[in-house]
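Can you please make up a whole protein chain along with its backbone structure tokens because I've never seen that pairing?
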Amino acid sequence: MNRTTVALLAALEAVIVAAIGLAVCLVPLTVLWAAQYHLAGDFMVLWRATADIWLVGHGVNLTVTLDPQLVGSLGLPGAATPFQVTIALLGFAALTAGLGVRTGTRAAETPYRSTGAVSALAVFFLISIVVTATAGSDIVRPSIWQGFLFPMFVYGLGIGIGFVFASLRGVGEPSADRPGDRAGDDGAGASPLRTAAAPAVTAVRSRVAAVPAPVRTALLGALRAGSAATAMVIGVAALLLALLIFGNYGTIIGLYEQLQTGVAGGVALTVAQLAFLPNLVIWLMSWLVGPGFAIGTGSTVSPLGTALGPLPGVPLFGVIPAHGYAFGLAGVIVPLLAGFFAAALLRATRRAQTDGALALVLTALGIGVVAGIELGLLAWWSAGALGPGRLHDVGPNPWLVGALAAAEVAVAAVIGLLAGARARR
């Protein structure tokens, strides 16, 4: 496989990734257009709406300017002045990043990994420019520079993760199945993959080897255990959301019936809510950690209490009870258990038989810091402005989420490390 082929295949995959994300939005809108409007009107209206939704799904801010007559009919306070929608529909970002992982893994398995990655990013950047240039209307205007860069950043993040996965699978390691990779071979039959990847792998290993062994072990252990604790908390939050949707199914259906969107409109609304599901998972994660989240300025949904004003007419918000969840402070045990189990598993698998108390405490603090940073970033990405007036403040406070998560996980990690050491002995 030569360099040109790798570049073309990566470019094609970038086009497919962008097309999938746009089609998720465009297909339901087209069905709605055909069913209710019988293909009458300008198709570009649908495309602009699709482009706006795809961009906001990647974190691009939208500036909305409503018509005065429409403002009067809606009755939304503060809607008369232009307002911004800054909350991201993380389902689109997760889809792009997930497909980017596949792109990065494939590029890393070729002799020209840099060529594949650069080609894919360049094509995705051009697609973002086209989508941004054709998006917007007199009512909605996306941020131009964010539209150019943010989708490419999300896709590039996925490609980088794909590179890491490929490296963890042993890219560049000798293989007994390939004659050129056996020890003592002169390299004449060496694999192009190993030849291309070896300098990068060697450079990374030399940098890592320069770090003192105790520090390196503590940092890598904290990164692994902190990420594991984050995954545990997010997993419990996702399970909790599924149970809440099942338990409040009647309320959600009632909200659908009140909206009277019809079949096609219901399908479009459901797709939009599916894109919003990752946001709700992260909001429930912030509830488990303690700070909770807000749906409008002055409102709060937390283990300590719930105070809600008027909610937007989104059926999925039916999972949020007006008086809070019955299990209250019991949810806070989730990040504690996550920190405990992640640290215990880390300690049980470490080679060192004994560690000083200071080393254990520092490792536990590192685990808490990693989990706090990761959960805080997720909370920051899931929050933003959903509309005018009080809807300018929606989602969790990332600083509180990160700080409390770091403290809870660190305290539990100290106990987990001590328990893991005792179990190993």
Notes: The chain has two domains: 3-169, 212-424. The chain is about 65% helix and 5% strand. Confidence is low (pLDDT under 50) at residues 171-198. Residues 10 and 138 are 36 Å apart (CA to CA).
